[in-house]
Amino acid sequence: MRYIAFHDDLTGLPNKELLHRMLTEKIEIARSRNTKVAVLFMEMKGLKIVNDLYGYSIGDQVLLATAAQIRKVISEEGVLGRWGGNEFVLVLPHVEKEEQVKELAYQMMETMEDPIIVNEQEFFMTLKMGISIYPKDGDDSKTLIRKADIARYELSKKAISQFRFFEKQMNRTIHEKIQMERELRKALESEEFELYYQPQIQLTTGQVVGMEALIRWNHPERGMISPNKFIPIAEETGLIIPINEWVMETACRQTKQLLDQYPFLSVSVNLSPYEFESRRLVQKIVKILEKTNLPPHCLDVEITERMTMDTEKAIPILKRLKSVGVTISIDDFGTGYG
Question: Beta 193-202 vs 207-219: how paired, if at all?
Answer without folding.
Answer: antiparallel
